[in-house]
Amino acid sequence: MRFRTLPIFLGFFVMGFVDAVGTLVGFAEKEFHLSGAQAGLLPFFGFIAFALFSVPAGVVADRRGKKLLLAASLAVVLAGQLIPTFTVARYELLLGAIFLIGVGMAALQVAGNPIMRDVSAPGRYARNLTFAQFIKSLGSISGPYLTAQLIALGFAWYHVFPVFAAVTLLTLLLVAALPVPETRGDMVPASVGSSFALLAEPPVALAVLGIFLYVGAEVGLNSWLATLLARDFGMDLGTSATRLGPGLFFIALAAGRLLGSGVLSFMGARRFFLVSALLGAAGLGLLFLGSRPAALAGIACCGLGFANIWPLVFSLTVESRPERSGALSGLMCMAIFGGAVMPALMGLVADHAGVRLAFLVPLAAFAYLTLLALGSRGAAGTMPPPAPAGASSRARAQAGLEPASGP
After folding, report:
1. What is the pLDDT of residues 108-131, one digit of tens each?
2. What CATH number did the domain enclosing 285 receive?
3. What would you report as the CA-atom Rg of the chain, rounded to the nearest whole angstrom?
4. Which of 66, 139, 142, 234 is most buried, by the most CB atoms less than 10 A from its CB?
């Protein structure tokens, strides 16, 4: 691992803090005497920020550079974290802070995912991005556990924000001192219009749809697994169903991302994409068998299969058009809004056909991802073109066609 990747990995750890918003919903509901719908505005404000600001952030990355956007996004996240650090007198202030954090996190994703390519050794982009997602998982896990620990020590739930702010400030300082030889964009400056124009290219549109469906499937599982285990197998919703549903899923997700960074040392990214999609689809299929052991095995398979879809689709797409990395990153981060759409669709299916059949929604998403992975193995466009005959193994590794060797 090269030293200059460390601040970027720390940036991914900060990205995971946004997942703590879901943990804070119950505390905010009690603190401000809110209805469920009012408390639900917290995660919604985070998702809507991705929909509104990802593409403009991609334009900034193309025009002004990814490092500048990375530093600016960390500053915005820090500003949002400082608001509840000093006061949570009104719910409106907390909503404003979460929205500001969401804006910063959207830009952080847009800058952080492609800048990893600029600081990675040849052929290491997909592997480093996969490992970065594991680091992000640790940030996600730290939110609920840190909040619970602070409360056990006698602190209020909102005291998690100054801890987050301290880590974000450290990351900002390290990024500011980091030299980054960036891949330059097009000679013609990017715009919001030219970014959306990339969707006219079928490989880009298919990849963006894949990200939309993947994020929606992941959030959908996190939202409905505990309910499935409670209703189908009689588990307690507040304890065993939660631990063995979303809890097991996130543990497997983190483990899969750690394993994935090693697998990419000897397996090409295209093949690993197909393996991951098939494993995720198989895990979802096990949820329909009506057996508790099969369901738990399916949840673990889902975590392992879901783990590497995002970094694989993202890295393979950016490798195909590195000169448009900012615009492509903006489009794919905008697709994170799928996390607000597909869980609601699963809810509609659950209301009319039962919770188990609601999992047909993520299963359909993974059927699409499997087809996308199969297509990527036989077509250029979304994935990098083949290296010329006689090219060195290092050149082929840079193109992503075979795993790299060496640091």
Report:
1. 988 888 888 788 777 777 778 778
2. 1.20.1250.20
3. 21
4. 66
